[in-house]
Amino acid sequence: MTPDHLRTTLTDRMTEQGSKWLAGACASVAAEPGVVRGLFPLVGRRCGRGPLDPADPHGWTVDDAARSLLLAALPLTGAALLEEIGELYRTGDAAERRAVLRALPLLPVGDGALPLVRDALRTNDTRLVAAALGDYATDHLDAETYRQGVLKCVFTGIPLSALPGLPGRADAEMARMMAAFAHERRAAGRTVPDDIAPFLALFPDVTVPGPRDLQDVSTATTATSSTTDRPSPREA
Amino acid sequence: MRIFDPHIHMTSRTTDDYEAMHAAGVHALVEPAFWLGQPRTSVGSFLDYFDSLIGWEPFRAAQFGIRHHCTIALNPKEANDPRCAEVLQHLPRYLPKDGVVAVGEIGYDSMTPEEDEAFAAQLQLALTHDLPALVHTPHRDKAAGVDRTLAVVKESGIAPERVVVDHLNEVTVRQVVGSGCWMGFSIYPDTKMDERRMVAVLREFGTERILVNSAADWGRSDPLKTRKTADAMLAAGFTADEVDTVLWRNPVAFYGQSGKLELEDSDAPGADATYEGNSVLRGVRAEV
């Protein structure tokens, strides 16, 4: 996503009135950055909120894109830019916070915005978690936090196909964590999300829990607990 | 049956309540900012609470097919604590948010000078931000509190049809009915009002400008009191259309004055709905 790409896509997705408002808002922000604080909350009402690409419900929304253009118009760099977007994130509702996260790859902030990504990953709001794991996290987030974020997606039902960093950032440790998660689910007789299988396949050497790791489970449950990674009857 | 609960403190409720409310017909609600059982002592704990009302709580409600809006204010009780008074300075950044459909709960608890000041200042915020106001009335010395409330509302210059005076009963409704303000009734298991008495009030005063809520909070309360009132109305001979007026069209008309009600998606996603192709609830309910 680049500002030009967003602008082009948005023209088809907004009313003329909305486009006019956004152009004016961007010009105001470019002239006087402080006005962004008053304009940011209004974007959904002025520009709309639907998916930017109707064929891609996993992707950006119209308000995400419009807010990103407002942020890209800020004539700020370095610490001043980080302070402004940090304030917009902290004082934002869920949609505003999501938009700040989406916009990060468009902004010259280096890895300075990682605290915002980490904040979003601490929430249980799937919209924020998914937005936090966009292109910016792909490029800047450390491996340990990225893996935890991916596992959180698996737990909360965010499809892994929505993460641009996968499969590129998958590694053996991530596959091990997924295998352990799948193992726990099967031991509980619960289903395992389909979208982790391709990652397990990428790392065939990953050690899946063996009989030794199963001691606690096998004493606590009946014989239906699988001691291998075969699907449990309930998943069949 | 479709129900809009115009005053309910969902922060205090469990997901079981959300499920039961949706099953009973509650598709939209407004959660007013108010005090919690434990008094707050710092501005920060207010801001986290407000952030929850425009962040986490609407997300939680949406998982059960219920559209969540809120009102934001410094409540009268905590307006008396000088450590909390600074909250007023933070309100202007919350009031323009999408989900904030009124300033509230404002009004009186003990009718102190500090409450006078916070009440008047927040009515002015409602005017500045073009929002309706949700006014709490005191539980002690209620009739005097209602008179004083109406005087302050009148003095503020806000249009009475943009104000709801809440927690009324058979006595205090008579003070408000001629004011032009909306009349709110909180139906509780054993205090304020019950559904049988509510039906009697509706018989006497009609359905115009009347809002019925469950208020359900951390005290003994029942988030299904809106539905139970609707059932009591039907049993008493009110028509389905009259029930719809009181329990859906009236709250929509009142909060619609904010220009910010969003009801199109009120019934989605429900319990079996999906988040971008996957069930939102796949892990959330069991693991969080």
SSE order and pairing:
The complex is a heterodimer of chains A (236) and B (288).
Chain A (H helix, E strand, L loop, with lengths): L2 H9 L4 H16 L4 H4 L3 H5 L14 H11 L5 H13 L3 H10 L10 H9 L3 H7 L2 H6 L2 H14 L15 H16 L9 H6 L12 H6 L16
Chain B lengths: L2 E3 L9 H10 L1 E7 L10 H11 L2 H7 L4 E6 L3 H4 L7 H8 L5 E8 L5 H16 L4 E4 L5 H15 L6 E3 L7 H4 L5 E5 L8 H11 L4 E4 L11 H11 L4 H17 L17 E2 L2 E2 L1 H7 L1
Parallel strand pairs in B: 1-2, 2-3, 3-4, 4-5, 5-6, 6-7, 7-8
Antiparallel strand pairs in B: 9-10
Helix pairs in contact in B: 9-10
InterPro entries (chain B): Metal_Hydrolase (IPR032466), TatD-like (IPR001130), UCP005295 (IPR012022)
Protein name (chain B): TatD family hydrolase
Organism (chain B): Streptomyces spiralis
Q: Could you explain how this protein is built, in words?
A:
The complex is a heterodimer of chains A (236) and B (288). The radius of gyration of chain A is 21 Å and the shape is elongated. Chain A contains 14 helices and no strands. With 236 residues, chain A is mainly alpha-helical. The two termini of chain A are 41 Å apart. Chain A folds into two domains: 140 residues, no CATH class; 67 residues, no CATH class. The C terminus of chain A is likely disordered. With 288 residues, chain B is an alpha/beta fold. Chain B has a single domain, classed as Metal-dependent hydrolases (TIM Barrel). Chain B has twelve helices and ten strands. Chain B is globular and about 50 Å long. The C terminus of chain B is likely disordered. At the A-B interface, helix 7, helix 9 and helix 11 of A face helix 3, strand 10 and helix 12 of B.
